[in-house]
Amino acid sequence: MRNKEKRRYIIQLSGIVQGVGFRPYIYQKAKEYRICGWVNNTGARVVMDVEANRGALKSFLLDVIKNPPILAKIEKVSIRMHNEMGYNSFEIRHSDKELSKIKLISPDISVCYKCMEEVFNPDSRRYRYAFTNCTECGPRYTIIKSLPYDRKNTSMNPFSLCEHCRDEYSNPKSRRFHTQPNCCSHCGPTLFLMNQRGKEISCWDVIHKTAELIGEGKIVAIKGMGGFHLCCDAQNEEAISQIRQRKNRPHKPLAIMVKDIEVVYKYCELTQLEQEVLMNPRRPIVLLKKKSKCILPGNIAPYQNRLGIMLPYLPIHHMLFEGNTECLVMTSANRSGSALQYKNATALANLGKVADYFLLHNRDIHNPIDDSVIKIIENKEMFSRRARGYIPYAKNMGIQDEILALGAEQKSTFSISQNGYIYFSSYLGDLKDKDSYDLYKRILKNFTVLIHSTPKIVAHDSHPKYLSTRYAKTQEGHRIAIQHHHAHMVSCMAEHALSEKVIGVIFDGTGLGTDGTIWGGEFLVGDRRDFIRWGYLKPVLLQGGDSTIHEPWKTAVSYLYSIRHDPKSFLKNISHLDVDIIQQALAFKYNCHLSSSMGRLFDCVSALIGIREHITYDAQAAIELENIADPNINTGYYYLINQRENIFELDYERIILGILEDLENAVLPSIISARFHDTISNATVEIICKIRDSVQLNQVVLSGGVFENSYLLQSVYKKLKAKDFDVFFNQQIPINDSGISFGQIVIADEIMKR
Known about the structure:
alpha/beta
């Protein structure tokens, strides 16, 4: 006789539901609520066919939806009632090959405390095993090749489960029930230690030996989850100097990994939110303010008042801290300016003159990825680099067309839209480097295969010489050129769900303008499809093409030449002959271009006051200028805003004259820097107010790489808020050129709609 209280539902869960222990979780919940039926993976969904009394099913469903596994994110729930099947048990079925429309993939997650208890327990069969993981932690994106997320579709496929691991995998009561990367020392990947000549080092424990070598001042290249790190003792100044010399990275800050949160407090000031971000399972690098009496060597982050800190996220890392070591330099393993190393053979070949030893393993990294970098601004997370732990990232923007957006050239990323979602790639570096360009193409190919994307629309930067633009021309489909600064603006608008017109302030280094000149100090009014340029920094004639980016003194000469001042008395470290050559080239307009770049103005000031005349990494001059600014100074320089019809022009002449006067009066560089920052902040806010009076708009978005400058961003933000503006800046999508592809795809969608 039919039970009137019994029901059967087929339930589909979409979102991040694979690789997070959802099927074993469902199995255990089904047993708890006495539910019969089955669960499996279908495409990128979890599908359940469940039968039980109506009350039990209701409680079961509410529990599953409200309290999913810790790493899961349910985006959509579909429930359909069907005729009863008479199930008398519950099982996990094999995955179907059917493709889901929505494909959300879990990022890689740091090792959990339960697994680390096993690693440090001499009675555990995973004692000191470096690849210990469970359903709540371990590799995901870096090992996946295709969906569904099953072992055979990952780089764990070559490692056959031993009897014990298979029992765990098959046991619903095990924490490793259906854990795809499950393994142990008998059946999983192995570590091995080599010297720089490729000879294997024989020892009883390779991690213990590695820690010894680091303690002796050696540099070790360590293969981790998404690629290699170069590692040395962060308290050994000579070892750090060796890394810098061998890597040809004289000044760029090095990330450090510290043993635990107590050690972080020894060296850095820390807010509650910063602590939470540091300790979350994604384990990003967080930029933290150094304590005034920080005793770590100054060559970790020279001329900086912040340190990039992360906590251990692999068993290898935790074991390296077993002794007296508190801090390790853990910087991306590459040659200066080139792509992250992630293969054993190429790492040995390319880093043989950088690292003394190599700690390797034999699991392939299918999708290499760098560490994420986050800072906290106005008590909000702000990504400088979205990568490990936070990629893949997908945001539902309602875009139905399949569009590929190829980003900019520096700090490159790509984005792909499919079935409403935008999939945003990790940071992939500067495409002018061949290795980075090859990696960009590899990751793009991997990702299109992973989500089964065949885009017919290709969005790219309007600059014809960018390698991303050139690559776009090799792709089939309808191509759409997107103006660089509009893409910055829309990246912020889309993140914050702004669709009506806004005032956009876009400050960066370079970007091709609609008039054929180089822009970078822009005040725009527009929406997701169109914009009008309402203001800009007065253009200056710069000499030297891209060389001005690497040699700020040339930019300073160009600015002083434009206001009829001789630079020789201010640029004391530059030969008079070199200055004369640049001035003659400016007189004849040889190899010159007009630029409204705010980034170049910051470079000019940095060079003028003797902070940085040549740079060794991107934006170094501006970064070091920010770091010396005295926060107790709040008086700026005079400035002039010219108005031509409805366009406002910020004239730099009075600003520079004020700086030159301070230099002649021997005013401290820290005071000059603060006055300059406040001047740009005040002028920016004044122009925005003038635009508001004209267009009656109150929403402002701030974007572009210059706003990586926390001092400037916070100053502008607070002053605008005080004037009752609604102010937005990029947070989840990077404010620098990494965010360009996200903006491009939204603009391309609007263009196609209309």
